[in-house]
Amino acid sequence: MTSILEFILRLAVWLLLAPALPGIINKVKAWVAGRQGPPMGQLYYDLARLWKKSVVMSTLASPAFIIGPAVAWIAVLVAAMFLPLGPVGGAPGFHGDVLLFIYLLAVARFCTTWAAMETGSAFEGMGSAREVSYAVLSEAALMTAVLSLGVQSGSVTLNEMLATSAGAGAVLLAAGLFTVLLAENSRVPFDDPNTHLELTMIHEAMVLDHSGPPLAVILHGASMKLMLFAVLLAEAVLPLGNMQPLMATFALIGAVLAVTIGVGLVESLLARFAFRRAPLLLTTAFLFCVFALLIAWKGGAA
Amino acid sequence: MMSGPLLLLGGIGLLAGIVFGRRRPRLWLVATVIGNASLIVAAALVLSGPDDWQWRNGFPIGGELLHFRLDGLSGLFLLLLGIVGAAGAIYAREYWSDEHHAESAPRGRAWWSAMILSMTTVLLSSNGLHFLIAWEVFAVSSFFLITLDRANREVRAAGWLYLACSHVGTLCLFGFFATLAARTGGWELGPMREQAGLAPLLWLALPGFALKAGLFPVHIWLPSAHANAPSHVSALMSGVAIKLGIYGLLRFSGWLPVPAALGPVVISVGAVTALLGIAFAFAQDDVKRLLAYCSVENVGIIFVGIGGGLLGMAHADAPWGRVLLAGALLHVWNHGLFKALLFLCAGSVLHATGTREMTRLGGLWRTMPWTASLFALGSVAISALPPLNGFVGEWLVYLGLFDASTSHGPAAWAAMPATLMLATAGALALATFLKAGAVIFLGVPRTRAAGHAHEGGRLMRGPMLALAALCVGTGLAPVLLWPAINRAVGVWNSSWVAGAPPAPLLTLGLVNLTLLAAFAAGSVWLWRKAHANGFRRGLTWDCGYAAPTPRMQYTGGSFAGIVTGWFAEILRPERVQQRPRGPFPSSARRIQRAPETVLERVIAPAAAGVLRVSSAARRLQHGRVQFYILYLTGGLTALAIIVWWGGIQ
Q: Which residues of B fall within a CB distance of 8 Å from A78?
């Protein structure tokens, strides 16, 4: 009974709280720039508005144009449900669920890019090509990070890997995961979520032709993915499993907020990189994770 | 045991196929399908039961008594062979029909049965000499299948390259079997782990089998052969034939003592193969070459698993070694299914449009909805995405690597780099298949041929659907296949035979099932919602551009541009570019090609050097008797001096 209740609670947290994060980021950016900015709940209004709108679909697109966003959204949601959320608990988990977690994110990427390519537009092609190309580096970095957590904790189950702290390599791991977060969620300096209709963007370019409920699902999925990476980063670094439940909750909320504000600050203080430099930054993130892995190896063997 | 009669029936069916192939196509199809079906059932019986099947006969061939054996390991490969062999035979009836290929279709049918029969014999042979003979027949029959369309120069070149490479491999194997026979005193094969002196022999077998499997850098024959062969032949070669190289390595590393360094070598070569294979695949424009390079990648993944198994055996039979070996075997099965499916899909596209170049295709989903959906399904499977079968196999491999890393043993130094390379290769595989699927099937047709495509008939769709169903089934219920995998693992290393699945396969199957249900429910829900809100079609919103042309779409080359740049040092992409000039440009073009670097930059120059030396040496042989007498005298004098010198010493 409690497990069902926990399940519903976790589902509610992911579905309802995720759209708040982009609002926080925008508030931070507005604060740094000295503007008032859009209200925190802007994304909720947008989602509600889009949900009621009708759909225009390209004449070229197949049904996968709508199936793609739906599957991607569910894949991100299921991946998120594997993450433990402090006192609300996590999915029971099984040996090797961490790999399912990573590959669910890949499913989401496949479906989003496939739906984008449906339209035959060069812009969507550009966005998809960038998305899958950068994902090569960010997935390698993510896998390295996860492997270092595995070596540190001696486990391949997500619950147990995230319960302990990342050990001596925590700073490196945090830096690496934070960069991966920025790249995977199309934030500055990899992409600028504010620009529209530019040749320089990734995520926005892929969803140019989507409208109505499918676009709402895409935007909601993107906010869930942001929260997923923020939670993953927080839990990877902090030893939440060793804290009191109440402490752990506050620590988790605080850490997720800190990450979100950090994204906002990066976005305010940095300009988007030239595309040629983005792989360099991602490679740096990958190297951070490799060093974290080596430190975890050294620490674990001692 | 029923396996013996069934195998006999299979052999008779395939022999009848060879006989009827030329004149009686219907009878050929019936005989071949019955033959393959009996192979499937025989293999399934051996895999589900506890006993092996063995058969000896006093009748000698080549001075050696016949000895056939079907155990868990060969059974798994035989099962795959039967499935792909039957599917390809049915497909070929329409794809390579007598109307379109009057000259080559009869030959193709006979060689098809011959190839399956020879591959079956390779799998069953338990005698080194017969293994070699069957191996050679198998190589030759696949040569004739590759060159079915022999009027085409490119096809002939691909065939010769294949034959040459294949024989280099056979040479290694000949050395291996001959030395083995000399050491053991007979050609008879079987478990001989206790004779430690035989261990170095595996170093001779490894290159021979790696050549057949297409491991980097001896994969050079594979892309052109798989691209130029008729598609049903590509499916059989990529799905099963290259797996016989893997079978060979598994067979003899399971029977012979293993040198200590073999595990790390196999695992590192496999990881490098996976990464470079998929990088080459991503850069290709020819869809069948892309699929062929992707086979190189998958063979790399399988080798990582096998290397892990070897490593695990060396580390006191560590449990993660069992997981890795099981992952490799499962991936053999999975890759055989989805790669055959993808090649058959590519064949349908080629059949409908007459081109393999993706830049000339596009928008085919409208005219070929079945092929498009099945290609998409195959892409999801081969990109190892849940909930399909590709994920289950790669999940086991990753899990084994993770377990090896977290065990803190020295094996982690092989496992950790391999994990990172596999992760990179995995992301690249997704990009590759997204590119292939999207450029071929989505958007607007880029040429008229692509616009007038048509769906294949029932004989082509049926086998594709069957393969796709097996992909889905394996993904949702991997636990059903576990007994077979476990049996093969047990044959390889008997101390791993006992016990439940080492990984929660049942849970994973349930998760996959739930995922599939959730995906379906979500899609239906969003589809209904979109239609309920009001739904209309409009022109693609190309940022306001109202007159898009097919040429404005992103092409495969532009899609792969970023990654090709990263790997430029290895891929060496070639460009021919002519920019538009002047106010009224008359012509402009840009041709991009990703060459087979190892072949064109390493092997071809080396071969040219060898040719130069040998043509220089040929001047010694000119037909003048006087000079030959001079050579003889010179040789005899030299020998005399050596003997005399030896006498003084």
A: 515, 518
Contact flag B533-A213 (C-beta cutoff 8 Å): yes
B403 to chain A, closest Cα gap in Å: 7
User: In chain A, which residue's Cα lies nearest the Cα of B516?
Assistant: A71
Average pLDDT, chain A: 90
The count of domains in chain A is 1
Query: Where does the pLDDT of residue B586 fall: very low under 50, low under 70, confident under 90, or very high at 90 and above?
Result: confident
Q: Which two tokens stand for residue B554?
A: 């992103």
CA separation for the pair B218, B169 (Å, rounded): 10
CA dihedral B256, B261, B267, B268 (to 10 degrees): -150
**Adjacent-strand bridge partners of B68:** B55, B125
Band the pLDDT of B620: cuts 50, 70, 90: confident
Q: Encode pLDDT of B102-135 as tens digits.
A: 999 999 999 999 999 999 999 999 999 999 999 9
Model pLDDT for residues B21-50, shown as the tens digit of each residue: 999 999 999 999 999 999 999 999 999 888
A122–B542 C-beta distance less than 8 A: yes
Residues of B in contact with A159 (CB under 8 A): none
- Determine the structural domain holding residue A262 and report its residue range: 2-301
Length of chain A: 302
CA distance A245 to chain B (A): 28
Q: Which residues from B are below 8 Å from A129, CB to CB? A: 554, 558-562
What pLDDT is stored for residue A302 in this prediction? 41
Task: Please check whether residue A279 touches B, CB under 8 A.
Answer: yes
Q: How far is CA A289 from CA A9, A134, B33, B405, B414, in A?
A: 32, 16, 53, 15, 18
Contact check, Cβ <8 Å, B423/A144: yes
Residues 6+ apart with CB under 8 A from B362: A120, B439, B440, B441, B442, B443, B444, B445, B446, B450, B550, B553
* Three-class SS state of B537: strand
User: What would the two tokens of residue B600 be?
Assistant: 């064109």
